Automatic annotation (TrEMBL):
GO cellular component: plasma membrane
Family matches, as Pfam families: TauE
Record has Ion transport as a keyword: no
Family matches, as InterPro entries: TM_pro_TauE-like (IPR002781), TSUP/Inactive_protease-like (IPR051598)
Topological relation to the membrane, as annotated: Multi-pass membrane protein
Protein name, per record: Probable membrane transporter protein
Native species: Flavivirga aquatica
Amino acid sequence: MDGTQILGYIGALIVGLVLGLIGGGGSILTVPLLVYLLGYNPIVATAYSLFVVGTTSMVGTYQKFRKGLVDFKTGLAFCFPSFIAVYLSRRYLVPNIPNTLFTFGDYPLTKEMGIMIFFAIIMLLASISMIKKGKDKNAISKKQPYYKTFIQGLIIGTITGIIGAGGGFLYVPALVIWASIPMKKAVGTSLIIVTINSLIGFTGDMQTLNIDWFFLLSFTGISIIGILIGVFLSKFISSEKLKKSFGYFVLIMAVYIMYKELNS
């Protein structure tokens, strides 16, 4: 095992840790880790990310459920439209995106570069929604109509399908802002959505890609250890600090990805 592989497995541990703490962000680390450190093609990296994040989140969901921090009703309301959109995106949309999207003079924007830039833009928007000051804690929270949840699930599912993310970094803000769920419960609820979306999305990739199962399972196993540690540590961190820290973390990663792609 060389130094790059060791760093990759350390990264896997951090992926799980982040998922356990904030219910999202696993793919924000996994995709850049697989692409920039381990040298995987972005299409393969986004597929592997779905499996790693989905399997790791499944373990985290159980841990959060034991603590009473999972709202299954709201989570499943988001899941139904989302997993349909994720599967269709991975199975039919992503494989049919042209290899060259645009050409600016002599500079081609490739499919791989386009996916990573789109990934960074979505991360940037999500980070802003988490960093800005939330609602007044004394304000009355109202649950939104189901049709709005359905539409939001379709949109987020399509986005996460394209970028190969579990979507926790999108679902946590959605659950806090739209569904009026407290931050810590939103973290737990997002994990069940991420689990279902990611693993169903990965089944679409299994039909179009050759999977290195040894690497994928070992990487995932280390991430599971990380999420167990993260879930334990999350009880010592306040919800407001968790929310803002999450937002700044996503912002930093978005800027880094954008910089790497535009300078490649």
